[in-house]
Inverse folding.
């Protein structure tokens, strides 16, 4: 390794530490309040195939993790399907390319950021607002049926992508420090490897789609 390469690498560690510190400070500003050590409440409600964007009535703050699970069947005269929709027919009418009749989510006032939920998704709220859902369909012949959606909203006080609840109750990391062990990697980055072994679990944030 040349001295130039070595010098460049040694400069990256403090830069990353500063970035992690800034991440924690910004998250702290965005999510003022006590650490959430209890499992978040579950809200269950229907989302109907024959309606447009439907307000769940649940509001979130920026930086919170929105955990969605859905089950049931809906559809139209072309057939019924579950929350994943019809994988062979994709549509992009709402700002996201997703299977037809798949379950979509967005926040109020955020028309240009729509997420495909499918059966399960964990989405970090990029802004405060109410959570809306609908099916990925515009004009459908005789839309019918409804999905049952279960929603949990979890605080992520240090903003690294793991909820306070999971950090305290499952992983044993510090919910107020993005880099609990000072290795230069966020807790979420370190836990990601363990998650690959144990499965999706709950409240794992998805990357933006
Ligand atoms: Ca966290
Ligand atoms: Ca943490």
């Amino acid at each position: 390794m040349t001295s130039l390469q070595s010098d460049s690498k040694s400069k990256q560690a403090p830069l990353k530490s500063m970035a992690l510190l800034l991440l924690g400070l910004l998250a702290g500003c965005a999510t003022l309040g006590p650490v959430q050590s209890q499992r978040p409440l579950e809200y269950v409600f229907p989302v109907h195939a024959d309606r447009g964007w439907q307000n769940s009535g649940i509001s979130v703050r920026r930086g919170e993790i929105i955990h969605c699970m859905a089950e049931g069947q809906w559809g139209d005269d072309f057939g019924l399907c579950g929350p994943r929709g019809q994988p062979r027919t994709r549509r992009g009418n709402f700002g996201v390319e997703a299977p037809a009749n798949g379950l979509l989510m967005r926040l109020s006032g955020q028309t240009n950021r729509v997420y495909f939920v499918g059966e399960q998704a964990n989405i970090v709220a990029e802004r405060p607002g109410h959570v809306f859902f609908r099916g990925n369909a515009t004009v459908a012949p005789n839309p019918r049926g409804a999905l049952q959606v279960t929603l949990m909203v979890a605080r992520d006080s240090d903003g690294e992508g793991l909820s306070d609840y999971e950090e305290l109750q499952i992983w044993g990391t510090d919910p107020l420090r993005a880099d609990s062990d000072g290795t230069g990697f966020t807790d979420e980055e370190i836990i990601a490897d363990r998650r690959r072994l144990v499965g999706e679990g709950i409240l794992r944030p998805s990357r933006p789609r």
Q: What stands out?
A: The first strand starts at residue 43 and ends at 48. The radius of gyration is 20 Å.
